[in-house]
Design a protein that fits this description.
The chain is globular, with a radius of gyration of 14 Å. The protein is mostly beta strands. β4 and β5 form a beta hairpin. Strands 2, 4, 5, 6, 9, 10 and 11 form a 7-stranded mixed sheet that branches. A 4-stranded antiparallel sheet has the order 1-3-8-7, with no helix packed on it. The chain is about 0% helix and about 55% strand.
Length: about 120
């Protein structure tokens, strides 16, 4: 019922900027919490940022002040604007949409994943 399609450039130099986009194809986008997670091989997937339809945001401490999540409900799109990128930000980034509690999700959808590499 809901499909998430990600887009964005995969390679950037340290200190650079990058924007990821995620378009949702579905009828209940506006009711979902939208966010971005990332995962490094051998490590647990972590929440990077999320935003409710009402504009409440949450960020992992390591990206606060550098990443900004935004949401355009008219376009059914969520963005992750990343600035001052560090090599430690290298990971696969997944767009996520869910309804319900974070630990008891009624609906839970994921994008295909985008490899972001921060390197000189």
């Amino acid at each position: 019922q809901v499909q998430l399609v990600e887009s964005g450039v995969g390679l950037v130099q340290p200190g650079g900027s990058l924007r990821l986009s995620c378009v949702a194809l579905g009828s209940i986008w506006r009711w979902y919490v939208m966010g971005w997670d990332r995962q490094v091989p051998g490590k647990q997937r972590e929440l990077v940022a999320q935003r409710t339809s009402g504009g409440i945001t949450d960020y992992v401490d390591s990206v606060k002040g550098r990443f900004t999540i935004s949401r355009d409900n008219t376009k059914n799109t969520v963005y992750l604007q990343m600035t001052s990128l560090k090599p430690e930000d290298t990971a696969v980034y997944y767009c996520n949409a869910y309804y319900g509690g974070s630990s008891s999700r009624i609906y839970d959808y994921w994008g295909q994943g985008t490899q972001v590499t921060v390197s000189s």
